[in-house]
Amino acid sequence: MSFDVIIIGAGAAGMMCAAQAGQRGRRVLLLDHNDKIGERIRISGGGRCNFSNRDVGPENYLSQNPHFSRSALKQFSARDFLALVERHRIRYHEREHGQLFCDDSAQDIVALLQRECGQGNVQWATGCGVERIERREADGLRFELATTQGRFRCTSLVIATGGLAAPKLGASPFGYKLAEQFGLPVVAPKPALVPLALAPETLERLQPLSGASFEAETRCLGSKPRFREDVLLTHRGLSGPAILQVSNYWQMQEYGSDKKQPIAIDLLPGIDAQTWLETHRHSNALLANVLAETLPRRFAQEWCSLFGFNKAMAQLTKRELQAAAEALKGWALMPSGTLGYAKAEVTLGGIDTRALSSKTMEASAVPGLYFIGEVVDVTGWLGGYNFQWAWSSGWVAGHAV
User: Fold this and answer.
1) DSSP secondary structure letters along 16-55
2) Is residue 143 helix, strand or coil?
């Protein structure tokens, strides 16, 4: 069978692309090796789908080319997707940091995409494995696919197969291998938005702090972005939203030549620790009890024991007070690695953007071949940014195929 467009991957980006192409009058086949579509959408945001963010810009994304996302995000913005959500009468709400969630269920977003595809008369092939893809030039058709459901030909081929995160939901390196087949460069993929592991000797030292959760500001030494959210200390290392956010920047260091830098945790965000401690300078209260005003009491006690600050404020020397302030504002921990793709939200790296058009997502050296969504070397922050990249990249490709 022949189609104008075949899209491999019926996730967020793939369905958006299929809907747009179909509504433009293109004959579209959307296939996926899974029997169920949109599973990652369904489980996202605790089942409510953090589908976008009020404030989205290129600065919220990591890539070897940090400006690549600009064009797609401008062509189809967060406001555009929100208008689509409202048109389908999906109730939603905004949480901290501009995150947008469905009021009821993530299934509402899956249903929206299915309806949009229906309006474009998109044909589906689920549970369909792709065995081989070959280039051809005949009758205006450029690609031929051998699949478990037969052979298909098309003029435009879109790869929306995602990355390696969430292997239990069928993640695979299919997109990367196809890029290499056609001679396109791939930035080595890594787990992203992922908890960080600590070395055994560090874990042993921090064992009394395990299970503690608190608000803090994190950053990766050597990079600018700071993230003020919750941090969770676990029996394996560091987790919580503030750690997931900074994990991307810690991972990005491996792409450069610089030696990896530690993660810095500010336990008193928004507070001048030196000045604040000075106000308690003559108190007979233990430092731990003073810190318990802003930090969980058990954590404050164990943290002070860890650093040897088990004294009353009045007993601390000027040098000790300064050391305490510095430790509170920049507690440095060096991760030993990550907890891997099984715990990662998304994938860092992917198809090198230098090989793609930022306006259409088409491969410059392979006319008719497009890559969209997570498979591309564009990775967003936590908070709806990766879904917005799926919508934006899928939309522009859908209008180009």
Assistant:
1) HHHHHHHHTT--EEEEESSSSS-HHHHHGGGGT-EEEESS
2) strand
- Please say if the pLDDT value at position 254 is more than 80: no
Dihedral, 158, 386, 20, 149 alpha carbons, nearest 10: 40
User: One fold for both 2-190+346-398 and 196-338?
Assistant: no
Residue spans per domain, the chain: 2-190+346-398, 196-338
Looking at domain 2-190+346-398, which CATH architecture does it have? 3-Layer(bba) Sandwich (3.50)
Number of C-beta neighbours around residue 346 at 10 A: 27
What confidence tier does 222 reach under pLDDT thresholds 50, 70, 90?
confident
What is the mean predicted confidence (pLDDT) over 125-146? 94
Strands 150-159 and 2-8: parallel
Coil vs helix vs strand at 381:
coil
CB 119 within 8 A of CB 19: yes
- Right CATH number for 196-338 from 2.40.50.430, 1.20.120.50, 2.40.30.10, 2.30.140.10? 2.40.30.10
Contacts 24+ apart (CB under 8 A), 176-182: 176/350, 176/351, 176/375, 178/133, 179/351, 179/355, 179/371, 181/133, 182/135, 182/363, 182/365, 182/366, 182/369
Position 256 pLDDT exceeds 80: no
